[in-house]
Structure prediction request, 409 residues.
Amino acid sequence: MTVETLILVLLVATALGFDFTNGFHDTGNAMATSIATGALKPKVAVGLSAVLNLVGAFLSVEVAATITKDVLKIQQTSGDGAGQLIAGLDPTKALLIIFAGLVGGILWNLFTWLFGLPSSSSHALFGGLMGAGLAALGTSGVNWSGITAKILVPALLAPVIACIVAASGTWLVYKITDKLAAHQKDDGFRYGQIATASLVSLAHGTGDAQKTMGVIALALIATGHLDSSTVSHGLPLWIVVTCAGAIALGTYLGGWRIIRTLGKGLVEISPPQGMAAEASSAAIILTSSAAGMALSTTHVATGSILGAGVGRKGAQVRWQVAGRMVVAWVTTLPAAAFVGAVCFLLANLLGNLAGAIVIFTLLVALAGFMYWQAQQTKIDHNNVNADWDDESGLIPVDVPETAAERASA
Prediction:
């Protein structure tokens, strides 16, 4: 097995690792409000979301095609439409660029998950790739026009549009059901939430699983294993199956820390608000996926939840929590880019396979440390709906630890 092939294998494994973190990082986008209102039990919610993420990953390849051409400029198109590496760039260096970008994305995902911050997995990935591309090739290594049109502009507009749509929907729902008793509204809309939350999960699989598919496809194009002109018509089945499986597994494990922040931290949400938020998110995500826009489901879902809070008279919105999220959003691209750049420089300094092994080892070590740190203040399906503590925010207060204690509480 050649050095290039070994790096490619490590890269594919790391890409699936990113897809896994994307799954548990973004479960809350679909299921947080349904869990918070009691429409779905926590374990049922993440199980349903996992299945629908799996199904959604098979529905489209438009976003995957965007990733192969609109983030990095490591390939150029020949006269017959086939892609080839830019002059002077060897396949091994191209793989190191993609590999380092993935490491940057994963580490930022884990860091924000540790603190329960629903930042964008998509922007973590794009930031990592951009940083590695800049470190390797300078400003010419980044497709600035593609990033602006397909990533930055949608990132700015999506949460605003989602907030407006969800606020309008929430206001309309309460206006129409004004004369109904509270329990009638809540019971009816809980059933509606199951449908809308399911649609968001399906949409998430359609959009986010494709981003990892696109990264793997880009690596295969760089090494001559895949023709770029065929990507828009479909990807090899093994890429679709493994990426769908990775994001579904990550989704099933829950990402409880972020589910808690979205479900309890932003707004004390009711079933009508939850249904309005989820319906808004699903409509926007599915529309963007069909257009090939690599939209952040986190930005959309958060904007929708905020809109659901604003749209209900007298609802409490925790703007301090929202402010922390915005800080995470703004810093995601540059922070992940910095890590991606450092990883590429380190890998390039050590050289090819040795460099790839070293940054892979660093990734595993840092991921293990952050997982251990998270276990010191564990959040899972047992305490995800505990009352929000404005002092600590993330950590539930006085939550029973055992089944017997929970039963007697």
Notes: Residues 3-387 form one domain.
